[in-house]
Write a structure and sequence with these properties.
The chain has 603 residues and is an alpha+beta fold. An eight-stranded antiparallel sheet has the order 6-7-8-11-17-15-14-13. Strands 1-2-3-4 form a four-stranded antiparallel sheet. Strands 5-12-16 form a three-stranded antiparallel sheet. It is globular.
Amino acid sequence: MDYAIIGNCMSSALIDENSSIVWACLPYFDSASICAKILDEQKGGELGIQVSNLISQSQTYISNTAILRTKYKTADGEFEIFDYMPRFYTVRCQYYCPPEIHRNIHLISGKPKIKIIYDLKPNYAQTKAKHSLTKNFIKTESATGLHTSYYLYTNFNKQDVINAKEIELHKSSYLLLSYHQKIDAIDMQRVYTEYERTKSYWLSWTSRTISPEKYKNLIMRSAITLKLLTFQKTGAVIAAPTTSIPEIVGKNRNWDYRYCWVRDASMTVDTYARLGHSKSSRNYIHFILNRMLLKHMEISIMYGINGENILEEKILKHLKGYKNSAPVRIGNDAYKQKQNDVYGELIDTIYTYFMVEPRVPSHINEEVWSLVRSLVNSVKREWKSADNGIWEFRNKPKHFVYSKTMSWVAIDRAAKIARHVGDKEYGKMCDEIALTIKEDILKKGWDDDLKSFTMSYGSTDLDAANLLMLHYKFLEASDERMQSTVLTMYNKLVKNNLVMRYTTDDGLGLPENAFIVCTFWMINALYLIGEKKKAKLMFENIINHVNKFGLLSEDINIKTGELTGNFPQGYSHLALIQTVFLLFTKYNWSEYCKGISESKREI
């Protein structure tokens, strides 16, 4: 899966090794696609560049940026393409991140020849595109159905672009695809200026990113990727920028991940805070506050990027799917589910927020404290009930051990927050509830024969999510039950040094591929119980699976090593960051929260 991602925190695009944009949605992450070749080679649409008489090609990101550089050597000359989406500060200290894609073509030598494959397919390729040429741009709009329009600005001959005619490069050129018609004139100087300002933005952003020297390039690429998954307008954090790239090629585990799961987003912004980017954490906290305007309002397990909580799932039958893996879905019916673990992830993130944001205005902290107490009320009411769990089982709800554990996390962290804000009585009340939940888990979630915590009360199935009991300090690493659980899962869930989420039928059949985030969880758990050699061997194995751009998807085929699932996956990248910090810095991940500035000096 050798795709690169470009973006600007409004939307993103995927580019393949042939410099074709094979996935793009404008103006926003969840908009209908205009390029979806990744989901249908013939019908999907692309914005590609074909190179004549090719000798060699190389692709890489400009270091510490989200700008992709592709260099071509041909029999006729050399040139390079810089792909990016603009993002930088304006003179008024506001972000400029328009819904547009820039493809700068820089001539190095000779007169190389190219063809522009301008094959946009609006509305998920459900309608044909209609092109009209003007002096300043090519306007592309949907011929039928929902009306959409896009504007291509270029200094190439526009008719040559439309007709995919071979073009001889005599000078540096540009392709600028915009959702909006531009008001100011577009020329090479403006394009170059926006390129330099975008590069400067990313270099500045990464310079403020806390990272150990060990595996620094991987950390920076993962941090940039997580940043690209944030939505500037609201603070939402999406799970991945794609839909329907299957967990298992040829099967039907295909989902739309262009939404904000409270669980994934909370873990991501927690990571932001620890990397030194607390502003992103504040933005997400405000996103949640804006969803729960009143104390009695319930948190949803997921939202649209603008806060929508109804995300009806539909199937696009006209698209064949990634490598013919139908169906292609938009929307996600998981929004209807009950997943009790989200309270724990969210309150734990708020706890981190309080620890690293000591100077937040009191009225904001008061809002956040009200949010915490509202969430606690929900946990008190729901923790005893069955749910669909972290893996979103679409069959009968169960009493998942991980959900119970995260209910404990929610109340335990609420107790700590209560003491932080000076409410000792509330903290004492939370401690009592947390103890009740913990005793329930120890009694009903442990299996004496397996010597392990199980997936759900009364079952004998294993669940890799329970490895996070160590991360959240439900039990200490020295506890025999925790050590036994980790080793039992290592023996039963590890395949070819990769980790399965579980091995039970989940209503869609038996899982076949390893889950990348679970592999990192296993590495962390092994390391914490003292199995450091096993942990580091597994770590070296998993990082060998990153693609040539340093990116990860959701899953890995345990037989072939192929990356599968939506791409790039935020969950995978935040887990990679956590693991590097645990294995190669002085502090473990939970201790790191004690002092960002102190940690920065020690790393």
